[in-house]
Every structure is written in structure tokens, then in C-alpha cells.
Amino acid sequence: MKKTFSSLCLCTLALMAAMLTSCNNKKFHINGTVSEAKDSVLYLENMSLDGPVVVDSVKLDDKGAFNFSGKAPDAPEFYRLRIAGQIINLSVDSTETVDVKASYPSMATGYTVDGSAECATIRELALKQIDLQNRVIAVQNNPNLGYDLTRDSIGKLVAAYKEDIKRNYIYKAPMRASSYFALFQTLGNMLIFNPRENADDVKVFAAVATSWDTYHPDALRGKNLHNIAIEGMKNVRIMRNKMAAQNIDASKVNVSNIIDISLLDNQGNRRSLTDLKGKVVMLDFHVFGSNGSTKRIMEMRELYNKYHDRGFEIYQVAFDPDEHFWKTQTAALPWISVRDPQGLQSQNLAAYNVSSIPTFFLIDRNNEVKKRDSQITDIDAEINALLN
Fold first, then answer.
1. Please, what are the averages of pLDDT over each run of 10 residues along the chain (388 residues)?
2. What is the annotated signal peptide range for this record (predicted)?
3. Residue 286: Cβ-neighbour burial (10 angstroms; 0-12, 13-18, 19+)
4. Measured between alpha carbons, how far is 366 from 346 in angstroms, rounded to an integer?
5. Is the CB of residue 319 less than 8 Å from the CB of residue 326?
């Protein structure tokens, strides 16, 4: 009898161990095909809080079939399939199997997804984001629109997009992975929902954070959302306090037709864009660490040398994270070189509706923005017209 009881105990323990091992080995699967991509490398990347991390990859044959798998997450997790610059965003929850079918090189917009309602919704959001980007580019490239009308038009496009996403996706189901995904969509280099300085956007982040607390307790992403929301609330409160504390003498207000930028140059001196009134100015947004920077700087030198004596100036704003590198790169430049320490999250980029860098604006002698680069076909003709 003792032997039988002992055997039963051992069997029970073995069964429990097997079940525990089985639970720990639960996996998700991402299968499918990418046609027209023979010999291309397809990557599966985890979109971690620190950026994309390669999980697996496969060199596709003429059939384009692939089969990835990974450990099932405790809370929704985000992945992407990538070939070069073509990306398909996905979310994974537990042990589901996601089936993706696409064709290269248009896989980012022409794919289908089955097996996951969240992935289907993320596809909707991704296509909406691409459509917004295309419409913004169309407005920027319209030569018939001046700066003010371009800025207002883009502002209305973005505001309408945010309202649609808030009402029909985020507030409708804030606990979903697709709602989390929507919070971090971008327009160029900028977040569409900016919790660092927009009180309404802070509320959106807070709504998703609170919901994730309930449905995905202890999830690292939920905690990250809370931190972002709290930081955003502090920033908004600080900005409001500064505005409330200001008691500006009307006689000291500088009336200008331009949104001013005031930053330290590479010699440590504060330089303001509005101080250049009376000159024709190229307001340039640049990253010296980017590809093509040297060639672009050489082209700007030619313009500066050609027109500076007639009243032409360049006010260049750099967004490089490394201040020492920036100072080294700008030490020999003859024009005004300033650096924005906020980097790609700068309010200056948002104020000028800059969605990609490099880009520039031409400003007349009255401190009024006349055109941006996408509206210019002959830069010499435009500068000459403003100088005359």
C-alpha cells in the first residue's frame, strides 16, 4: 500500500512538472508568405521599449514562405516583419497564430492578416497613418500655398486625424494593443499624439495607461505609459505656470510675422531669428550626423558666398544629440549655427510643421516666411526675388 501511494505521488509530481514545463514553453506563431521577394531577408523584430530588436530572420525562396515563433508573452507585445524599409506591424497576445500574406516591394500597404483582430486593427491604423503622411506631403509640395496656409492646412489634417483615432479606436477600447500602438504613431520624426506639451494628448495616454492597469497588471508597457503621462502632466503644469506668471509690458512686445527661435550658437551666444529682420534668411533645419550632410553644407556655402553681401543670411538649427560633434562640424561655418537640445522632440519642429529633416524656409526682409523647400524649384531665382 505504501509502495502504491509512493508511486502515485511520483506520477502526480511528474505530471505536474510536465504541465508546468508545457506552460513555460507556450509559443506564438507568425506564418505566411511574401511573394516577389526571392533572396530577400525577412526579419522578425520585437519592438521593445528601447527600439527594434531582431528576433529571427529567414532568406526567402521563390515561394516566399516563412514561419516564425516565439515565447508567448504575458501581456500584449509588439513585433514587425521587415524587408529593407518595408514594414508590417503586428501585435501578439498569448499563443495565437498570425497568418500574413504580402507582396514585395509594396508589403507595407498591400498585406492581409488573419488570426488576430488586433493585427487587423493595427493594419487599419497603419494605412491611415500612411494616408495622412501622403496628404501632408501633398500640401507641403503645393506651390500655390503660402507658409501660413500650408501650416493651417497641415494643422487641420493632423487635428482631424487625432480626433478620428481618439473617438473610433483609443477611447472606444483603451485596453487593446491597437490603442497602445496608436499612441506612438508618428508624422515624420514627431509623435502625432504629443504628451510632452499637449494636455489633451496627456489625457489620451493616461486613459490607455489606466486601462492597461486593469487588463494587463504589472505589464512593463503599462508602467511606461504611466511614466509618460505623469511627465506630460508636469510639463503642461510648468508651461501653464510660466504663462500665468508672465506680466509682459505691452510696450516691450516685439511684433513679428514669424515664430521666433532663440537658441545658443556654437560660441555660446544666444541668437534669435527675429533679430535678423531686414535680411533675407534661409531658416534651415539640419542634422549633421545624417547621410548627405556634407554635400548639403557645400551647396549652402555656395549660396551664402553668392548672396551674403546683398543681405542674405542663414540661420541653421541643428538637432544632433552630441553637442561636441555639432560644435566640431560647425566651427568653420560662416553663418549662424544654433543647436536645439530638445532634439527631434523639439517644439520648434512642431511650430513649423516639420515632419522630416533636412528642410528649409525662405524668410523675407520683414521677417515673414514666404516659402518652404518643397515649394521651390529654382532656389537662386527665389533668393534673388526676395533680395531685390
1. 44 46 73 96 94 95 95 93 95 90 94 95 96 92 84 91 95 94 89 86 90 87 88 74 54 57 92 93 94 93 95 96 92 94 83 86 91 91 94
2. 1-17
3. buried
4. 25
5. no
Are the CB atoms for 147 and 369 separated by under 8 Å?
A: yes
The number of helix segments (H) and strand segments (E) in the chain equals 11, 17
Name which of 153, 197, 162, 199 is nearest 182 in CA terms: 162
Record the pTM. 0.68
Edge-first strand order for the sheet with 112-114 is 65-71, 27-35, 97-103, 112-114
CA–CA gap between residue 256 and residue 41 (Å, rounded) = 53
Name residues whose C-beta falls within 8 Å of residue 49's C-beta, 6 or more positions apart in sequence.
220, 221, 224
- Angle, nearest 10°, between helix axes 379-387 and 293-307? 30
Whether residue 105 is preceded by a cis peptide bond, meaning omega within 30 degrees of 0, is yes
DSSP 265-319: BTTS-EEEGGGGTTSEEEEEEE-TTSTTHHHHHHHHHHHHHHHGGGTEEEEEEE-
Nine-digit cell string for 230? 505623469
CA separation for the pair 194, 229 (Å, rounded)? 10
